[in-house]
Every structure is written in structure tokens, then in C-alpha cells.
Write a structure and sequence with these properties.
The chain is of the alpha/beta class. The chain folds into 2 domains: 238 residues, no CATH class; 145 residues, Mannitol-specific EII, Chain A (3-Layer(aba) Sandwich), CATH 3.40.930. Strands 1, 2, 3, 4, 5, 6 and 7 form a 7-stranded mixed sheet that branches. Helix 7 packs across helix 10. It is elongated. About 3% of the residues have low confidence.
């Protein structure tokens, strides 16, 4: 065996090699890149990434360890096919042939996965107007053929015109930059506190792991030598130029980073484009088919009241809002609410009330979700009401009226709903709780 000297180049050699072979872990991001094709993302994506990391690490450690022990260092330094050479030393020509065929199969599957995932990046950027529109063109079978072709051509040019060592360093540098961006993105998304940013997989020890990861990745780039550093500088320079001369005037809406910067300047900003995009992502991820109740909640005026207040004061506020939405006279709505409460209390359980009335006219419906932080004092009730859903609809909307009551009942049964409702930071957080709580949409 050739395991001595084992630590020949010291720590610098270890870190230099680690940075150089970083491309080997590209499969981690490939799992996430094809998320659009995956069902049950919250389970499959984390599981796929952990399995990819665990299985590949075990295979790499075992194969590299065995190869180093089987091959003379002088031979190993000159060979571009060390695994095949190791197999030949043990099993002769048949072993070399089998290992070579296995390597070719691995290269083909890796190239296929690489092109598949890499082509999704220009596709997504094109949809956001960060690249020309033709990158997002799909064939009849929903394949981004142009994006795949251009991505494959770029890979081919790199392979043909870069020597193997420079190619590996450049590829690993790109992978490290990607991982840096992923960690930065996580921090930006978390700190922006967007209402509809609701990750199903939580990062432990946030943000310390992300910050440590960024620092380590930057260190690895510098440990690989001048070429990766120059390439990194060139990459960022090109990205900045491309953004200012092409993408800036074409991109839609506000980036999350811009949202975060503006949030530092003012309490209220217009981040509707981001919220809308994140909402669509959650709907797709959870496979939510929007129904009428969802549409009503989207446009509903949610009340976030301080209190404490009496029931009449509360009903006056609600009556005014319902009147604005339905056109029914405010006094009439207030009268209906008070009369309904006299017939029987609309307090369903401690802290929750669902006042509901029938309005005159046709095709009229309104729902007012309410949070009152210090409570609404209902007559005959010992405890204040903190959560309320006020429903008002004409007779012809009775069927949907009942469906809405059922939807609210299911939402209220969601685990920790009441706690989340009271702890929500703003109205959009309250809305997202109603939209994305699990319920029957059949």
C-alpha cells in the first residue's frame, strides 16, 4: 500500500484539492434545479440532496482511498484514469475494461443530468426577462430545446478549449459561486420576512451555518490559485455589465434583495410582485387548486384591530366594511348583526366568533376575517373574542355561505392555527394563513 507519507502537502494541499474537486458535488444543486419536474417538493428535494451527498461521499472516500493504496504515486500522477488503472493492478485487463465502461456510463448520466439542470437556469432567467425570450421557448413535449442546445454548446466549447486542470478548476469555481449565492439567498429571503416565503424545509443553526459556508467557499476559491480568482472576478464583472445594460430595464418587479434594502428605509413598501410570485410557488408546491373561497380571501379586507372593544363598536366597523363591498346600507347591516346576536350567540368557542347574516338583494357576498389583539367583549361571555370571521351574503349565495363556514371550520382545526393567527406580523401574514392552511377544496 502507498499510504505514506499520508499528509504530504499539509492543510493547504487538502483545501486546494477540496476546492478543485468541488464540481463532484454538483449533483446537490441539480436536485433543486429540476424542482419544477418534482412532486411533493418538501419531502423529495431535501431527501434527494441528503442522499446525494451521503452516497456520493461514501463512494468517493472508498474509491479514492483504495486507488491511492493500489497505485504507485508516480503512476498515479501521470494517469488521467486512476480508477481504471487501480482495477487493472488488481483484476488485470478485464477489470480495466469493466471500470472504463462504468466510467463512460457515469460520464453519460452526469452529462445528461448536468445539461438537464443547467438548461433550467436560462429558462427561468428568460421568464424573468433576464435573458432573451427565446431561451424560454418550449417544444410540444414541454422541452426547452433552445436552452438545452445553447447550454450543451457552451459546455462543449469549455471542454475543447480548456486543459483538464483549468477546466476542473473553473467548473469547481462556478459550483462554489453557486453555493455562495444559495447561502446568500437564504439569508436575504429569511431577513426580508416576506409573508408568502414559507419554506417547508428549515435550516438548522441559521444564519451561522450559511455565514460559515460563505467564508469557507471564498477561502477555497483563493486556495485554488490565480485562475479561479481571476475567473471569479471576470464572472462577476460580466454579470454586473449584463445586468446594467440588458436585464435592469427589462426585469419585472422588485428583487427580494431590493425589497430588503427598501425595508430598511421604510416600514411599508410595494412588494406585490414578489408576494405574488411566492404565492404561486406555494400553490404549485402544495398542489393547491384555487377555489372560490381562496379568491374571496385574496380580495377580502382583513381587519387587524387593537381593542379592547365592545360588540357594538366592533359591529359598526364591520358593517361599514361590508357596506363598502356590497352596497347595502351600513345601518341595515348593523341592525342585522345585532339582531342575529340577540337570537343566539355567534361565539363558537372560547376566543372565536363567526357572526353571519343574510343580506337583501342578489349576488352579494362578503367575508371579513378579524384579529383583535386585546379582544372583543361579547355580552354573556366571560372571555374576550380574539378571532372572528364575519360572513354576509344574499339568499342566492346560501350554498357558498355554508361552504365558507365549512372551510373556516377546517382551517380552525389546523394545528396551532390560533397561535399563528395571533403571532402573525401583518395582514398579509394573516391572509397567507387562511390561503395555505390545509382543507378540503373538493
Amino acid at each position: 500500500a502507498y499510504y505514506t507519507p499520508f499528509f504530504y502537502s499539509g492543510w493547504r494541499g487538502i483545501f486546494g484539492a477540496a476546492g478543485m474537486i468541488f464540481i463532484s458535488y454538483g449533483g446537490l444543486t441539480k436536485v433543486a434545479s429540476v424542482a419544477e419536474e418534482v412532486k411533493n417538493l418538501g419531502v423529495i428535494i431535501p431527501r434527494g440532496m441528503f442522499l446525494a451527498f451521503g452516497v456520493v461521499s461514501i463512494i468517493y472516500v472508498l474509491s479514492v482511498g483504495l486507488t491511492i493504496g493500489l497505485i504507485n504515486p508516480a503512476q498515479l500522477k501521470q494517469s488521467l484514469t486512476p480508477l481504471s488503472l487501480g482495477a487493472k493492478n488488481v483484476l488485470g485487463i478485464p477489470g480495466e475494461v469493466v471500470m472504463t465502461l462504468a466510467a463512460l456510463a457515469a460520464f453519460i448520466t452526469t452529462a445528461n443530468a448536468g445539461i438537464l439542470s443547467s438548461s433550467r437556469v436560462p429558462l427561468a432567467m428568460s421568464r424573468d426577462n433576464l435573458l432573451p425570450v427565446f431561451f424560454s421557448n418550449l417544444t410540444r413535449r414541454k422541452i426547452p430545446a433552445i436552452s438545452i442546445s445553447i447550454t450543451g454548446l457552451f459546455m462543449l466549447i469549455c471542454i475543447l478549449f480548456l486543459d483538464i486542470k483549468s477546466l476542473v478548476k473553473v467548473a469547481s469555481t462556478m459550483q462554489i459561486i453557486l453555493f455562495i449565492m444559495v447561502n446568500i439567498s437564504i439569508i436575504i429571503f429569511r431577513q426580508s420576512r416576506l409573508s408568502y416565503y414559507r419554506p417547508v424545509f428549515k435550516s438548522i443553526l441559521y444564519p451561522y451555518i450559511q455565514i460559515a459556508g460563505i467564508m469557507l467557499y471564498v477561502f477555497l476559491i483563493f486556495e485554488m490559485g490565480k485562475i479561479p480568482v481571476l475567473f471569479t472576478c471576470g464572472f462577476f464583472a460580466f454579470a454586473v455589465v449584463w445586468y446594467f445594460f440588458y436585464a435592469r430595464k427589462r426585469s419585472r418587479g422588485l428583487s427580494v434583495f431590493s425589497y430588503l434594502l427598501k425595508k430598511l428605509e421604510a416600514k411599508e413598501i410595494a412588494g406585490k410582485d414578489i408576494e405574488k410570485e411566492l404565492m404561486e410557488i406555494i400553490k404549485e408546491r402544495e398542489e393547491i387548486v384555487e377555489d372560490r373561497f381562496d379568491r374571496e380571501i385574496k380580495k377580502a379586507e382583513i381587519l387587524d384591530l387593537e381593542g379592547p372593544m365592545g360588540i357594538e363598536e366592533f359591529f359598526r366597523i364591520v358593517a361599514r366594511k361590508i357596506s363598502e363591498q356590497t352596497g347595502v346600507e351600513e345601518k341595515k347591516i348593523l341592525q342585522l348583526l345585532m339582531e342575529r346576536e340577540k337570537v343566539s350567540s355567534t361565539v363558537i368557542k372560547t376566543g372565536l366568533a363567526i357572526p353571519h347574516i343574510i343580506l337583501p338583494g342578489e349576488k352579494s357576498f362578503a367575508i371579513i376575517p378579524v384579529r383583535c389583539r386585546n379582544g372583543i367583549l361579547y355580552p354573556g361571555e366571560e372571555d374576550p373574542v380574539y378571532i372572528s370571521f364575519v360572513l354576509a351574503g344574499s339568499v342566492d349565495e346560501r350554498k357558498f355561505h355554508l361552504k365558507s363556514l365549512m372551510a373556516i371550520a377546517q382551517i380552525m382545526q389546523t394545528r396551532n392555527f390560533e397561535k399563528k393567527w395571533m403571532e402573525a406580523k401583518n395582514i398579509e401574514d394573516l391572509r397567507s394563513l387562511l390561503l395555505f392552511s390545509r382543507r378540503d377544496r373538493g
